[in-house]
Amino acid sequence: MKLSIIVPCFNVATFVGEALSSLVRQTYTNLEIICIDDGSTDETLQILNRFAAQDDRIRVISKVNTGYGDSVNLGLVEAAGDYVAVFEPDDFIEPEMYAVLMENAMSMDLDLSRCGFFDYCDGVDSRNACKGMPVNRIYRPRNSQDRCAFLQPPAIWSAVYRKSWLDAQGIRFLPTPGASFQDISFAFKTNLLANRCFAVDRAFYHYRSHPNNSVKSGGKIFAPSNEYRECLAFARRRGELDTVKAVFLDMEYASYKWNYLRIGAPERPIFLDHWRNEWRDLLSEGFRFGCFKHRLYAWVLLNVPPAFKSYLDSKAQQI
After folding, report:
1. Can you tell me the distance from the alpha carbon of 315 to that of 319, in angstroms, rounded to the nearest whole number?
2. Helices marked H in the chain
3. In this structure, which long-range contacts are made by residues 261-268, counting pairs with CB atoms below 8 Å and at least 24 apart in sequence?
4. Which of 181, 172, 242 is nearest to 214 (CA)?
5. Which residue in 86, 158, 193, 308 is a FRET match for 183, CA 20 to 30 A apart?
6. Under DSSP, is residue 198 helix (H, G, I), strand (E, B) or coil?
7. Angle, nearest 10°, between helix axes 248-262 and 292-303?
8. Domains in the chain with CATH codes
């Protein structure tokens, strides 16, 4: 079976050479590498074209800047593979990654085949624990015993996905401008509708953290909220809202806490008010917490918001 690897690129000249080198060295060779240049203003496009001239499995598509989600969606349209993967152009992977993921996908007839990953910073790898992830067995996230899969980091780049299944289910990225956390809703949609998933308990992907990571940008304070709004809308359209009522608030807590610590101090009270109002509404609709600690934090946020703000601000000072 063929694998299509989609590489959305915007001003990544510093890292994209190492990223593509790790792709062309893959031991799984029945693949195509679709590089989408999203209107880069540095040397990214020239580097992509240079690699394409050396390896006919690489195809470069250049377009005006419309954002990460729109770039990946274009790649999904262009992909000819039976399975697809999304690869970040500032990361790198081990040579056997896609061989392992594709072997598992084919032998077990999977919608989603996943592996573990490393957080890579300043030349040092740290294995992300992904606590609670179902590993080394077939799982279905919307089953009650497997819903912990929803609570994992999105890590959409650590998996391959059945292309015909994505198309049939209409699973795509939000085409919002820039790179604004579009992995949140894509990961949610794939978890919600996948029937056969498998995560191997091995790490192959090196997720690079550096000052220019889009996730570290202090702007777009409501970008994660927009993604979660899309998650709820998608679940409602598919009649799956009851499936996620027991896990959705726990998902949001980890993401919203991280977002609060990411944004600037002047914007934090604005986001906190939004967070508080949203949770009040969701709790009134029957959403509930699976984690006691999160339920306790929610009570404080709803009833004593200054205390919750002080708690978060103390965490921010430790970063």
Report:
1. 7
2. 16-24, 44-54, 68-78, 97-108, 163-169, 183-193, 223-237, 241-244, 248-262, 268-284, 292-303, 305-318
3. 261/312, 261/315, 261/316, 261/319, 262/215, 262/216, 262/217, 262/218, 263/218, 263/219, 263/221, 264/218, 265/316, 267/218, 267/221, 268/309, 268/312, 268/313
4. 181
5. 308
6. strand
7. 60
8. 3-212 (3.90.550.10), 223-318 (no CATH)
Backbone angles phi, psi at 234, to 5 degrees: -65, -45
Per-residue pLDDT of the chain in tens (319 residues, 90 and over written 9): 999 999 999 999 999 999 999 999 999 999 999 999 999 999 999 999 999 999 999 999 999 999 999 999 999 999 999 999 999 999 999 999 999 999 999 999 999 999 999 998 888 888 888 888 999 999 999 999 999 999 999 999 999 999 999 999 999 999 887 767 899 999 999 999 999 999 999 999 999 986 655 554 455 899 999 999 999 999 999 999 999 999 999 999 999 999 999 999 999 999 999 999 999 999 999 999 999 999 999 999 999 999 999 999 998 887 6
* Entry pTM: 0.93
Please give the structure tokens belonging to residue 113: 């085949």
Amino acid code (one letter) for 205: Y
Distance (Å, whole) CA 242 – CA 234:
12
Please name the residue that has the structure tokens 């690079």.
Answer: 208
Q: 245, exposed or middle or buried, with CB in 10 Å at 0-12, 13-18, 19+?
A: middle
What CA–CA distance (Å, rounded) separates 163 from 102? 13
Chain-centre distance for alpha carbon 114: 12
Total H helices, total E strands in the chain: 12, 10
